[in-house]
Input
Amino acid sequence: MTTRFDNLILYDGLGGREDGASLVIEDDRIIAAGREAKNLPASNLIDGTGLTCTPGWFQCHSHIALDGLPNMQAQIARDHTESAVMASAVRNSLRCLKSGLTSVRDMGTAFDVSIKLRDAIEKGVLLGPHLYAAGKVICMTGGHGADFGVEADGADEARKAARMQIKKGADLIKIMATGGGQSKGMKAGVPQLNFLEIQAITEEAHHAGIPTAAHAQGKEGVMNCLRAGVDCIEHGVTLDEEQIEQMLVQGTYFCPTLMALWYVIEKGAAAGIPQYVVDKCKIQAETHFAGFTKAYQAGVKILAGTDAGTPFNFQDDIASEFQIMNHLGMSVKDIIISATSAPAKAFQADKKTGSIEAGKWADLTFIEGDPQQDLDAFRRVKMVYKMGKKVYERADGADIFQVLI
Output
């Protein structure tokens, strides 16, 4: 079936914006977009007056099986079976769709649940976004992420751990290069996996043709990752001119996960967040927000991601990340790029999705209003299409999902 949407505000995901635009999709593909699509024949016509259409959004840093509870570690301890982890992941997949997300990069689940969920979604057994799944993270013994990861010490063990995740079908390898804010008893930015271990993991990933991403918060850990050729730095809460310059030279991506700090500081220990988490996040905030602005202004390639699953950081709240990115100086067009074409390229999917161009998958997010005029438009998701199928619609105050039969 051919569908034509008319009278749209259209952001193509590449920096372009057009008023009064049309968009034609057929089966799972985009046929044409813009004013030239206005007169193309279609069997189904939809008036998009008042709607903005963008490429479907990417959530670039999620822990899909975590629910944003005040004490993240308590949920990890509670959900100690694969079935419990999978149940949360399935539920959160629907939350992602209704918030405009057609793609999610999962950055670590116990039992490799994200890999298994990805396969179920691709087979049509379950409804959810495209998943780019890391499965288990790779960390040092007792390091950050050890409760849902693979512990490895030394380059040989690290190399084997990477090979094992590749064997299981991971789309990327997640490296835990430093301590983190959610782990008790460790300094957030202290180096953990060392350069040789990170290098071994990265070599294996690149031999397999998949990217790496590293949880890296302190400068030494970030520089270890950059020297080892890691493709994306996650968090990067202490970025300075040296780190930024190296990222520019190498073309490294940066996923800042601003909301992970924001919500912890905003809610605090009174909301049930462990005091040690609040204390560490306050220290990180002293440099993180300014570092993001410096990286953006310098031209570092930014990916929109929230670290969804951390305290009060819900899977359906990517709009809050957009708002704080804008508050810190990022333009609306660049925010949309950071959630569409930039991650598609980073995840090696840009030939298929990430922009509104003829021949790409019809992964589309429709919102009410224009975010250029009103940032809250990002919260008013009206419809979501995944590969040409309407998988979600907000109608008469109710959430309507595609029914799988």
Notes: The chain has a mean pLDDT of 96.
